[in-house]
Design brief:
Distance between the termini of chain B: 64 Å
Number of helices of chain A: 19
Largest interface: A-B, 34 and 23 residues
Structural class of chain B: alpha/beta
CATH architecture of chain B: 3-Layer(aba) Sandwich
Oligomer: heterodimer
Order of helices and strands of chain B: HEEEHEHEHEEH
Strand content of chain B: 15-25%
Shape of chain A: globular
Number of strands of chain A: 10
Strand order of the largest sheet of chain B: 5-4-3-6-7
Largest sheet of chain A: 6 strands, antiparallel
CATH class of chain B: Alpha Beta
Structural class of chain A: alpha+beta
Shape of chain B: elongated
Distance between the termini of chain A: 44 Å
Helix content of chain B: 25-40%
CATH superfamily of chain B: Glutaredoxin
Largest sheet of chain B: 5 strands, mixed
CATH topology of chain B: Glutaredoxin
Strand content of chain A: 5-15%
Number of helices of chain B: 5
Chain lengths: 639, 176
């Protein structure tokens, strides 16, 4: 019975979401108060219904109810409880339910935290979110019902893909979706203001913290995914330009552009139509990402089972949502006059340039991701686009962006004297050049590429620190300022990590017998042998390796080769000795004759800085949201 | 409505057009360049009796099926009973190409599960597999009387595929 309640709650949620999507929008258009005040309660009811539905699905997993098809396909009774919970979004139906549930979570947050906003605006924003919820619920109910029954019930489930049996699954999708879906709020604000014809600074001020919040989640979600791939997939890489990774990265790039553009709109009233377009684009790309992942039009390591009806449904939904938004944009945006004028050497110019580079980067990643599909659709053949394309296109776009990042924060709005900026920045330039020459020498080989990486990273860092020192002299800096500096520092840290790993990592594939030693990056790794181990739902061959430096044992590593009972594919669990300035990564390959094994050993300098940088970016965003000018509003809200 | 504000909409509509076409195409399906070409010739030892060899030329004049399999291949075990069905139907002889496998393990598997094959040949180093463009096991080829490949299936053969594609194809090829 319980799963039927979950299904029933979904149907009810659909009905209420329809009310939430239609009546407030009409009410706001025709000035009917009694209709538009329905927005908040409707949003809250939808949230409660979806929470119920989501909880019931989770319960079905927890209780091992294999009469539910989705549970039987993605879990089994041997699966540890924490992964049973993660398995809720381990497949198509559940991850869509999570998507919608998070959408209604954002909606309810908007409805709660918007008390000082006028009712018309709130009605429109919640109405737009309601329409999106309605469409997606229709999709779930018609093509992807997670509560579908299985008669007769399965004895036991098929279990979760062993690759997904990892804490990464528990945190990565909710974080990522929270970010993806969060852009819907900025989108709804943009549509609402286009509908009302009031594209003003107030609109930007309202959208800004929401956009930043979504961006924080997306940043963390992508970083978690990257980290998960690094330690779980056993490939030792941190980014593969896989279509599904790109699907999350493209909205991130546009979202980053949006954050900066919103700042101009809020502070200076400029770039209005551009900002609106970015807000529409960021969310459209999130939807497009969902389409690409869920319809199976692209091949990827994230291979999902596909059903043609699903692809068509999402495509129609995408066309309706994005098409109507862009049409509205085409009709309404031209009416908005330009904001304040600014000179060529103003902060506006720098932000605009940065925006252009970010959008071009997003466009080139999108092109590379879709290119196989375009070529196939034109009957020009089957091709795939790999990392060489992305690296050679993406990296050059990032170079000028990083140069701008060192200068932009020093400029002032409207007009600034570039000569004074240059005078203040010469020291940063000098530090960057010294770093670019010295660090490659210390690390080993000098290459122009790595030197360039350090030059840019230290340019950003030095510029940031100089500015912090300068600002601290004149008084306590605002949280917005601190947040911005920390996020930019995060980018620099990230660049250092990428440069170090790219230029100085060492990889060795060797055949090792018990007692043999291999050395990488000044470490010696001794193979001690392999033992059988029994896990909760797998059997493992567990290798033991001693990590030594200068003859002293620093750590012992236990990479595993696991055979899950429910799967025939052996899984590789790499062992990583992580450190602030390097990771040592050992993974077991195939067993060769006798007691010899194929072993892969990596020395990865500064690899954790990649994710550390992302954490700093997210932290910067978090600090910026807590800035006083948003808190004033919050305090008003509470009172 | 100023022209430049409509550009995003137009770009998007073009994209939707491409996505719609893309939906109807399977990115996993790589067309085999061997379709309607002669089956590559080879001479391999028979699995049961390595002293005897087999060449596709000896199958001239009849429609036959080449099935690439291996004892280490899990999907082949799923496919095995269906191939046995197919052999019982006596519509076309099946030749098994034992791909990158150990002879004794392959023999043991056929002994315990029954052999659907008229005969099996051993491609121990996978050299013939390269000629046939094998990139996943199992793979199945339908070859006509003149030694031309008419159909290729990557992955296990299913009952559905047998009924909808392979049986009709074989009876059509037999007529000509």
């Amino acid at each position: 019975m319980i799963p039927e309640f979950g299904h029933y709650a979904l149907i009810l949620a659909f009905c209420v979401a329809l009310i939430q999507g239609v009546l407030p929008l009409i009410g706001a258009h025709q000035g009917r108060r009694e209709w538009l005040i329905l927005a908040r309660p409707a949003a809250q009811v939808v949230f409660l219904l979806l929470a119920t539905s989501f909880f019931i699905l989770a319960w079905s997993f927890y209780a091992n109810d294999f009469s539910v098809l989705y549970v039987a396909e993605h879990s089994n009774s041997q699966l540890p409880v924490v992964y049973r919970f993660g398995a809720v979004w381990g497949g198509h139906e559940g991850s869509l339910l999570l998507w919608i549930f998070l959408l209604s979570t954002w909606t309810v947050l908007v409805s709660q935290l918007s008390k000082s906003l006028d009712d018309f605006m709130v009605a429109r924003v919640i109405g737009v979110l309601g329409l999106i919820t309605t469409g997606l619920l229709l999709f779930v109910l018609t093509t992807s019902n997670p509560f579908e029954r299985l008669f007769p019930a399965a004895q036991d489930g098929r279990s979760l893909n062993p690759l997904l049996q990892d804490p990464g699954l528990v945190f990565h999708p909710p974080m990522l979706y929270m970010g993806y879906v969060g852009f819907s709020v900025a989108f709804a604000f943009a549509i609402a203001s286009l509908l009302s014809g009031r594209l003003d600074a107030a609109w930007a001020r309202w959208s800004r913290p929401w956009t930043t919040a979504a961006w924080i989640f997306l940043t963390l979600g992508i970083a978690l995914g990257s980290w998960w791939a690094y330690y779980e997939l056993g490939w030792g890489g941190w980014w593969f330009w896989d279509p599904v990774e790109n699907a999350s990265f493209i909205p991130w790039l546009v979202g980053t552009a949006l954050l900066h553009s919103l700042a101009v709109t809020e502070k200076r009233g400029g770039f209005k139509s551009w900002t609106v377009l970015l807000a529409i684009t960021a969310f459209s790309l999130s939807l497009l990402g969902t389409f690409l992942v869920r319809s199976g039009v692209l091949t990827s390591v994230h291979a999902f089972a596909t059903d043609p009806r699903r692809g068509i449904f999402i495509l129609i939904f995408l066309a309706l949502v994005v098409g109507s938004s862009l049409l509205l944009y085409a009709v309404r945006a031209p009416k908005n006059t330009m904001g304040g004028k600014f000179s060529l050497s103003s902060r506006e110019t720098f932000i605009l340039l940065g925006n252009v580079f970010l959008v071009v980067a997003a466009g080139s990643v999108l092109l590379g991701t879709l290119y196989p599909l375009l070529i196939d659709a034109l009957h020009l053949g089957k091709i795939s686009v790999g990392p060489p394309y992305f690296n050679s296109v993406f990296v050059p776009i990032m170079v000028p962006l990083l140069v701008l990042m060192g200068i932009g924060p020093w400029t002032s709005w409207k007009n600034s004297n570039l000569m004074t900026v240059v005078k203040r920045l010469w020291l940063a330039g000098l530090i960057a050049i010294v770093a670019a020459i010295l660090i490659p020498r210390v690390m080993g080989d000098f290459t122009w590429l790595s030197s360039m990486g350090f030059l840019l990273a230290f340019w950003v860092i030095a510029s940031g620190f100089l500015q912090i020192i300068r600002q601290a002299k004149t008084g306590v800096p605002t949280r917005s300022f601190i947040g911005m500096q920390i996020a930019h520092l995060g980018i620099a840290i990230f660049v250092i990590g990428v440069t170090m790993v790219g230029a100085y990592q060492e990889e060795k594939d060797v055949r090792m017998s018990s007692g043999e030693t291999v050395s990488v990056g000044g470490y010696q790794i001794q193979f001690q042998g392999v033992r059988d181990e029994l896990g909760p739902n797998y059997r493992a061959m567990r290798g033991t390796f001693s990590l030594m430096r200068h003859g002293k044992v620093e750590a012992v590593l236990y990479p595993e080769k696991r055979n899950y009972f429910s799967s025939t594919m052996p899984m590789t669990e790499a062992a990583i000795n992580a450190g602030l300035i390097r990771d040592i990564y050992v993974s077991l390959g195939e067993q060769l004759e006798d007691s010899a094994w194929a072993v892969r050993v990596y020395y990865k300098p500064f690899v954790d800085w990649i994710w550390g940088g992302c954490l700093l970016m997210a932290l910067g965003g978090l600090i910026a949201i807590t800035d006083k000018r948003y808190r004033v509003k919050l305090r008003k809200l509470v009172a | 409505m100023k022209a430049k504000f409509i550009i995003p909409l137009i770009l998007f509509l073009v994209l939707v057009g491409f996505l719609a076409v893309g939906l109807n195409r399977d990115p996993h399906e790589v067309p085999s360049p061997l379709i309607n070409k002669s089956a590559p010739a080879f001479e391999l030892p028979q699995l049961a009796d390595p002293k005897q060899s087999f060449t596709p030329a000896s199958m001239k004049g009849q429609v036959w099926i080449l099935n690439v399999w291996a004892s280490w291949c899990v999907a082949c075990r799923e496919e095995h009973p269906i191939l046995v069905e197919l052999s019982k139907a006596h519509v076309a002889p099946i030749i098994g190409l034992d791909y990158k496998d150990k002879r004794d393990e392959a023999m043991a598997l056929l002994a315990s599960q029954g052999s659907p094959y008229l005969l099996a040949v051993s491609d121990a180093n996978g050299r013939v597999g390269i000629d046939y463009g094998v990139y996943g096991v199992p793979e199945t080829y339908v070859i006509d009387k003149n030694g031309i490949i008419r159909f290729k299936q990557i992955g296990p053969v299913t009952m559905e595929l047998l009924n909808q594609k392979i049986y009709p194809l074989i009876s059509e090829l037999n007529k000509s």
